[in-house]
Design brief:
A six-stranded antiparallel barrel has the order 1-2-3-9-8-7. The chain is built from one helix and 16 strands. A hairpin with a 5-residue loop joins strand 14 and strand 15. It has 226 residues and is mostly beta strands. It has two domains: 106 residues, Thrombin, subunit H, CATH 2.40.10; 114 residues, Trypsin-like serine proteases (Thrombin, subunit H, Beta Barrel), CATH 2.40.10.
C-alpha cells in the first residue's frame, strides 16, 4: 500500500491510494494526477510506501516521474477510460512489491480493498472524515451486469461489497483491489477508479476498478523504459 499526496484546492490534505508494483514504481489512478481534462495536478513530491498510518511510518520517497496511460479520458456521465498512472520514485524502497495477478478471478471471487478514503459517505469535502489508519473492506468480483450497462467490461471490474452500505469512496482512488493467488498470497487485480453506476452515494452501489492484469503489457513496457 502506498499513498500519493496531491496539491489541489479541493483536496488540500487528501491523498490517493497506490500499489507498489516494483521497488521504484507505484501504480495509481490517472484521475489522481489529472484533475481536469486540460489540467495536470502538481504532485507535492512525495509518496509514502508500506505504512498502515496515513501520515506517518513506512518509507517516503520523492516523485521523479509520472506516466499517465495514453488512452486516459474522463467519463462524462460514464466511467473513466484507461484510468491508470505510474509514478516512479527517486530511489527504490525496501518493501516487497505486490505481484500483479495473471488475471482477475471470475464473478464471485473474494477480494479485498485497501484505502484511507473517507469513512463518512458524503460529496461535501468539509464533512469527509479521513481515517488515520488503513482500512480494509471484504468484497467480491461481480458480473458485468451488476454494474450499470456499459460500465464494466474487458478492462473494468465491477466490484461488490460484502458489507452492507460500504464501498470505496473519496480518497480511496488509485488504491488496490487484491485477490488470493497460488499459496494464498495476495495479488493485485484492480485499482480503484470510481462508482460502478451513477449514484450520489459511494455506499449505494457497486465500485468500478481498472483491471490491472489487462494492462500488464503497458505496465511492463513503461517500467522497461525506466
Amino acid at each position: 500500500m502506498a499513498t500519493v499526496p496531491l496539491t489541489s484546492d479541493q483536496l488540500a490534505d487528501g491523498s490517493c491510494g497506490a500499489s507498489l508494483i516494483d521497488p521504484q514504481w507505484v501504480l495509481t489512478a490517472a484521475h489522481c494526477v489529472v484533475w481536469r481534462p486540460d489540467t495536470h495536478l502538481q504532485l507535492k513530491g512525495t509518496v509514502r510506501v508500506g505504512s498502515a498510518h496515513r501520515d506517518s511510518g513506512g518509507t517516503v520517497r520523492n516523485v521523479s516521474r509520472v506516466v499517465v496511460h495514453p488512452g486516459f479520458a474522463f467519463g462524462e456521465g460514464a466511467p473513466n477510460v484507461d484510468d491508470l498512472a505510474l509514478i516512479r520514485l527517486d530511489r527504490p524502497v525496501a518493501q516487497q512489491p505486490v505481484r500483479i495477478a495473471e488475471h482477475a478471478g471470475p464473478a464471485g471471487t473474494p477480494t479485498r480493498l485497501l484505502g484511507f478514503g473517507t469513512v463518512v459517505d458524503t460529496t461535501d469535502y468539509d464533512k469527509m472524515v479521513f481515517p488515520g489508519r488503513l482500512r480494509e473492506l471484504p468484497t467480491r468480483i461481480g458480473a458485468q451486469d451488476d454494474c450499470a450497462p456499459g460500465w464494466a467490461g474487458p478492462t473494468r471490474l465491477c466490484t461488490l461489497s460484502q458489507v452492507p452500505q460500504a464501498m470505496a469512496c473519496f480518497g480511496d482512488s488509485g488504491g488496490p483491489q487484491v485477490q488470493r493467488g497460488r499459496g494464498g498470497r495476495w495479488e493485485l487485480i484492480g485499482t480503484t477508479s470510481g462508482p460502478g453506476a451513477p449514484a450520489d452515494s459511494c455506499a449505494s452501489g457497486p465500485g468500478l476498478y481498472s483491471d490491472v492484469p489487462a494492462y500488464a503489457p503497458w505496465i511492463r513496457a513503461t517500467l522497461a523504459g525506466r
